[in-house]
Amino acid sequence: MDKKTIRDVEVAGKKVIMRTDFNEPLDERTGHLTDDIRIRAAIPTIEYLVNHKAKVILCSHLGRPKGKRELLYSLQGVAKRLSELLRQEVRLVPDCIGAVAEEAVSRIQDGDVILLENLRFHPGEEQGDPAFAEALARLGELYVDDAFGTAHRAHASIVGIAKHLPAVSGLLLEKEVMTLGGVLQNPVHPFGLLLGGAKVNDKVALIENVMSKVDHIIIGGGMAASFLKAKNYEIGRSLLDGNVEVASYLIQKADKHGVKIHLPADVVVTDEIKHSSPAEIVPVGTIPPDKRIADIGPLTVSQFRKVLEKCKTVFWNGPMGVHEIPQFSESTFAVAGIIAGLHATTIIGGGSTAEVVTSLKLNEHMSFVSTGGGASLEFLSGQMLPGVAALLDR
Ligand code: ADP
Ligand code: MG
């Protein structure tokens, strides 16, 4: 990576403000965290700083409190989980700027870790307010960004703060950029891109950017409907939130690049995307006009398996069906299992996709599960992420 990391600077005895992405999914009723992968992913950088005798000041956002102090989005649960994982007390400071935070920072010793309360309790964070960034910067002497999942946002704690302090990358952010960047620069072929999820439009830039590098593009999920329609199939009342012209354009472009596009041969259809709505498997040539596609079918899963098994590199983003509803979740879970069993470099990106892999406990079987939902897609689309751009060049 062409940016400085914590290994390139002296951290001992310094007050280090580390921006993390502890934005874990929450149970909205109880406020309990339902996952901890992002907390776990930050541990190596925190441990590095602790072992090198830095004074560690962590900050993060959680949820969308919209600039107001909302107890549901307190980082209290994160502080507790962090204390367990680090086997060291991590005290939560009730505010991230001002007298309370400055007082807490003045008392911290080398090797201590404190966590500042949710950055988004202040409207200045998301607004990128320079005064808020300055108030935050005042707490430290060095800024470490490890929040890859938020690197596509030009927020105060991501970009503004780097104008006041020397800014370097943490180990997670470095690993994300190196791994995702490596896939773009020199993938081992054949390289398969497996896409699903709902919106074609969100993924056009990604498909275009990788077109010259991939050998196979495999399409399932809601976006398959747009591609099937572009191939003149009846798709009934399926979701069409990408437009068909875009799909046609991508099909033509793939043709020019000699990239093979694989579409479903059979699909699971239903009347409504609802828990109570029964599922039916049909070949793509006979989708009833009054039904919707909710998943790919078993024949498609076996065809996709054959393509994936030929690949030496696989990037997967987007569920194959409406995985939140049991009768439409089978192929997403099957595909996750197939990818986990490949002898290939397997990289998972996207919020829902990472959650699926984690819920099946398959993380260890993948080469890399990105912690960046939107950030990983933007990065693979070839965009410079503001959070990376803000760091010091090597
Ligand atoms: P990720 O968060 O991994 O990037 P996306 O946000 O692109 O994935 O897509 C996830 C969503 O796509 C899920 O909520 C899932 O229900 C939805 N989805 C997948 N297949 C379909 C389909 N056939 N019809 C409607 N929604 C779908
Ligand atoms: Mg998503």
Word description of this protein:
It is a single chain. This protein is elongated. The chain has helices spanning 37-51, 76-86, 98-106, 123-127, 130-137, 171-185, 200-210, 224-230, 244-257, 298-310, 330-340, 351-359, 374-380, 386-389, and strands at 15-19, 55-59, 90-93, 113-116, 142-145, 167-169, 191-195, 216-219, 260-262, 266-270, 280-283, 292-296, 313-317, 345-348, 368-369. The longest helix has 15 residues, at 37-51. The protein is an alpha/beta fold and 394 residues long. Adenosine-5'-diphosphate binds next to β12 and α12. Magnesium ion is lined by residues 350-352, 373.
Offer a few descriptive terms.
single chain; 394 residues; 14 helices; binds adenosine-5'-diphosphate; binds magnesium ion
Query: Which structural class do you get from the secondary structure elements?
Result: alpha/beta
Q: Please state the oligomeric state of the protein chains shown.
A: single chain
Radius of gyration, in angstroms, nearest whole number: 22 Å
Q: What is the general shape?
A: elongated
Low-confidence stretches: none
**Helicity range of the residues?**
25-40%
Question: What about the largest sheet?
Answer: 6 strands, parallel
Bound molecules: adenosine-5'-diphosphate, magnesium ion
- How many helices? The count is 14
Order of helices and strands: EHEHEHEHHEEHEHEHHEEEEHEHEHEHH
The span between the termini is: 8 Å
Strand order in the largest sheet: 3-4-2-1-5-6
Strand percentage = 15-25%
Number of strands: 15
Mean pLDDT: 96
